[in-house]
Design brief:
Layout: E1 3-7, E2 10-12, E3 18-25, E4 34-39, E5 45-51, E6 58-60, E7 68-73, E8 78-83, E9 92-98, E10 102-103, E11 107-111
Parallel strand pairs: 2-11
Antiparallel strand pairs: 1-3, 3-8, 4-5, 4-9, 5-6, 7-8, 9-10, 9-11
Length: about 110
Amino acid sequence: QVQLVESGGGLVQPGGSLRLSCAASGFTFSSHTMNWYRQAPGKGRELVASITSAGGITTYADSVKGRFTVSRDNAKNTVYLELNNAKSVDTGVYYCNAGFRYWGQGTQVTVSS
């Protein structure tokens, strides 16, 4: 059974940092590109970051480039998303995705003072 479990969401002040984690099981994690999406209130789901199976290539949405960092630990079957210099527009539910096929349940991030 495939499982993707996100954690680390919460309230962060503008300019602050947060680290999200996604623990994977039930499939060959090391063979999949991993993605982070987010969905802001009233908006569609947006791809914010991707990392290839061996971690050699990362890509980011223009809106987060230079502020977010995606990484993975294939030994722990875990992918991370570090949010730095958080802005109010980063508020939303963040979802972990495996291979554009499997989804986690999401974790809420709220950027507010």
